[in-house]
């Protein structure tokens, strides 16, 4: 029987007999056009990534039941094949649940309308559909496994199931999925993340506390490799929140170094490239009622939404190239004590050792950059310069080859043979100094006449260099026993523009470089005053005639001759229903639904309309006049002033994305069930009482409250006899007692931070006493909605809002009188794009409100100009010579100020590197 090409032990994975540090880039094929795959994958490869990690989105491949799509942008097999062409391995994560801030966690919308089922469970109804999905997807992975000559090395079972259940509770479901993969021919190692099952290797998902996560894995699976299956490079964003830019490049570098010093031998960067939630596939997540994903999934990742590198990309490249350069030592290293190491004050040190080779991690505790000194057990004292909060490596007697050891106090980004010469690339910040020591079994010869500071021992078997990291790379050749070692010394700015094209092939000093399909090099602008290098290409090291790009200007498309079509509530076709139903029951995956109610009223009066089950933002109109935009969902109320006679209440709801992660997937989207007039709402955040033993003080839950979690608070409220139903919605604590009776909440999860609970059976007319545990403050919402079942609104119609075939009305420029939902249409010509230019287009929607974007019939996603997203990606590959752009704006804001914008590197042309 043939040996599986993928094996492992407690240290690392072994691929085809060689240990490999897993530098994995999370890149989702379904979040960008197929035409962009190569560029993004090449940039991952050139940053030192050797594995691509991707989810597979069930709802993309089966958008309607039985209608499978593995073509074009959804051709996941072609994506894996392209990875293989670029010599990139694949970590496949087929789900069926993927989370990914993707609508419904990857489940298809229509699943909600089949026979009742419990998602992510050992429910026969649910598993019937999972099996059909696996029958389609798993063969695509099976035939591309490395065991069959392909490049898939790991396959994940489910995803983060441990956030819901412990392993014992999850066991049978996880076994079913595991066996389903094995029985369909998966023979590479199976992995899990956050939760596991026997026969799989568990990874950890985190951003910080690497030691804690490592120790948990050691305790659980001591003899298996330890990798970070999701190392969070940034974070997702949602409408109305601040930009998620809190994970800086410097902190990102530090966290990666913490994973190395903890002992992890693999990092999967989630996300390496985030991409875009095209097609309104952005999801909704936990922690509040209105956390709806923005259309961009940029994630503040290492590559921007437009595929451009940034400071985090440079940090990822620094650490990934370092881990590759050190992998022979790192992958069999164990932690070592530091009791025989002496070091300066205000720094700390940890180490790992493999035989005589050691790697030390030196951390600064100072508030400014400082040079510390470390005296090793050998008696050598080495300076090391560290920035505040930084962890710098101290490479201690790395074995270059038998008889030659290498020591340095900074990062190395290359350690391999190039052009037949073993080459080590050394980098440090511009203007800093690095210490390098070579120790050999015989005398060494420096080939150059050096002006830089160096010291050779009396016997010629040790040489120390004191390098200064200039703008210009320095190259030194040392001969030892007939072999040559080449040292290339660069600064961090040059390192940021140094590319590992392939094993033993580096381009140094290029802003961007990639390999075209024919294998030739293509690049953008070399750094000013730097003579670029090509190492390992069989060419001269120093190239004075390398390609230098000339900036050029791009035409900006302009939008003229807008036409419009207003959504007329009175003219659209309506379907009468007994009560409101959800988007899925209407067969409407995304977009808008209009619910219309007739409310007869004898005389003008104020009323409060209660919506006990609302899943999305809702724009409310009474008699054609907008009343409010509801953003806090779950349950809601609408204060209105009813006129005498017949009133029309219209509720326009946009599908804002289904929960991508929670114990409550499959929630209401749109409205469900009856709504009620003449209700009431009580804001329950004020006037809670601490227990007597804590002083019986009054507590306001909309303020910061310094009391222990789970403390029981009490307050009273009054229920009028006019109401027989009530729901409480918002930040409900895990213990909820009303009038001495504990409210049953069988699916309560405290970390969800948001619940809707029917408390009708616990209330009495008059005064009620409620006791609740506290888990966080301030609470942004805790309401009780009261209503009576006799006051249900029974005359209701529903209408899916589709884009009209004709949008022909001429736009009256500067006419701001319209506040009705309106379609706007324009056409524009594709701007001239040079063949060697790679622009990124985006729409900046100045002056608009909230709505949806369509380009040439393709859904570009939702927009909502409340931030943090301002610009919306328009893929170049989706442009035609003549293009149609349609906007649906909920308040009819005119698009006369919107504009095309190019991303920051669009004005550089690419050319061949000679």
UniProtKB/TrEMBL annotation:
EC category name: hydrolase
Domain Glycoside hydrolase 35 catalytic span(s) in chain numbering: 14-318
Gene3D superfamilies: Galactose-binding domain-like (2.60.120.260), Glycosidases (3.20.20.80)
EC number(s) from the headed UniProt entry: 3.2.1.23
Domain Beta-galactosidase 1-like first all-beta residue range list: 581-682
Domain Beta-galactosidase galactose-binding stretches: 821-882
InterPro entries in alphabetical order: BetaGal1-like_ABD1, BetaGal_gal-bd, Galactose-bd-like_sf, GH, Gly_Hdrlase_35_cat, Glycoside_Hdrlase_35
This protein's record includes keyword Lyase: no
Keyword terms: Glycosidase, Hydrolase
UniProt keyword annotation of Amino-acid biosynthesis present: no
Family: Belongs to the glycosyl hydrolase 35 family.
Protein name as annotated: Beta-galactosidase
Organism: Paenibacillus yanchengensis
